[in-house]
Amino acid sequence: MSLRERLRDFARTPMEAEADEVREQSYTEGGDDLTALAPRYPACVCGTVRTVTLPPRRSVPALVAELWDGKGSVNLVWVGRRAIGGIQPGTFLRARGRVALFKGQPTIFNPAYEIIPKQ
User: 105-109 and 73-79 as β-strands: parallel, antiparallel, unpaired?
Assistant: First the structure.
């Protein structure tokens, strides 16, 4: 490791270090770059769940999880669900589905998913 790499690693913030780790694991698990997702095309996305939200009760039940790969994010929406065991902030997921652009944000509705142990 060169001196330049050591200094760069020393100057990184904890958030930058975490982003690098998530990016690396996402790449090794076969995830697509979340900053390059194209609407109406299938995608395999990997990353860490940042947030889990529920729309108000008066609407259709849905669980929304924001997945972050260290560079970009995508929303995963499970319609008709209020909770899914294991889907919580900090969980590393691989999800597959067709990308839609919903309210300006890349979104995958009812994705197939698997929970992957964090490296």
Answer: parallel
